[in-house]
């Protein structure tokens, strides 16, 4: 992805902020030590290359491109550490799982790829219908997500023998367009969505715990019956 001059000057503001945060380091004549952290495939290494003004860190459109910590001296009083992407040990909210997969933060093989595309297109149809219409030249978006993926596939010539739509190919087109920014500026998550989803996650967890307790009680009863 090409970085614009505007983006470069935005990114360089980070340097000013770092200096403000740690003025004592400069007074001591020491380098300010910084570290960049985040989920996989969000552009950590790309920011580092932009700050360095040259390619010092390997980037790529998939998770786990950076495999170990790498320290880069920017030669302007700041030393930067690039780190591999990190994720929560367990993602309990299924919506978060889909969104992480949509952005490529988890490996494409970790989840059912086409399901991820269906989830994403359903969200985009609600949140950004105009972007979808424009990108794929569709006047009216079908309500059903499978039909919508079929419409995208049809527009892009994703055909299989017998004229059937190749949904996997259509899924690849959609997710690539999202990840490359070709679809437009998109956010997959808002704070209010999360509050609602967390309530659902808690309810599901409570229900699971209740079922588990019930099963345990059943087992205990059966055990006591057999013992008699
Ligand atoms: N659309 C878009 N793509 C970006 C942006 N910044 C980086 N990318 C692309 O996103 C992909 C991942 O970038 P990296 O810099 O390798 O990401 P990372 O966070 O270092 O990834 P890991 O080291 O794998 O955790 C690359 O294909 C970049 O070209 C951005 O602002 N917008
Ligand atoms: Mg990286």
Strand content is 5-15%
Largest sheet: 3 strands, mixed
The rough form would be described as flat
CATH architecture of the largest domain: Orthogonal Bundle
SSE string: HHEHEEHHHHHH
CATH top level of the largest domain?
Mainly Alpha
CATH third-tier fold name of the largest domain: Conserved Hypothetical Protein Ylqf, Chain: A, domain 2
Helix content: 55-70%
* Mean pLDDT level: 91
**Ranges with pLDDT <50 over ≥5 residues?**
none
Describe the protein's architecture and organization.
There is one protein chain. The chain has three domains: 5-82, 3-Layer(aba) Sandwich (Rossmann fold); 94-180, Conserved Hypothetical Protein Ylqf, Chain: A, domain 2, CATH 1.10.1580; 190-228. The protein is built from nine helices and three strands. It has helices at 5-21, 23-27, 44-52, 94-103, 113-127, 129-136, 145-155, 167-180, 191-227; strands spanning 32-36, 70-73, 78-82. Strand 2 (70-73) and strand 3 (78-82) form a beta hairpin. Bound molecules: guanosine-5'-triphosphate (GTP) and magnesium ion. Residues 44-45, 65-66, 82 line the site of magnesium ion.
Topology:
Elements: H1 5-21, H2 23-27, E1 32-36, H3 44-52, E2 70-73, E3 78-82, H4 94-103, H5 113-127, H6 129-136, H7 145-155, H8 167-180, H9 191-227
Parallel strand pairs: 1-3
Antiparallel strand pairs: 2-3
Helix pairs in contact: 4-5, 5-6, 5-7, 5-8, 7-8
Bound molecules: guanosine-5'-triphosphate and magnesium ion.
Characteristic terms for this protein:
Rossmann fold, three-stranded mixed β-sheet, binds magnesium ion, 9 helices, mainly alpha, Conserved Hypothetical Protein Ylqf, Chain: A, domain 2, 228 residues
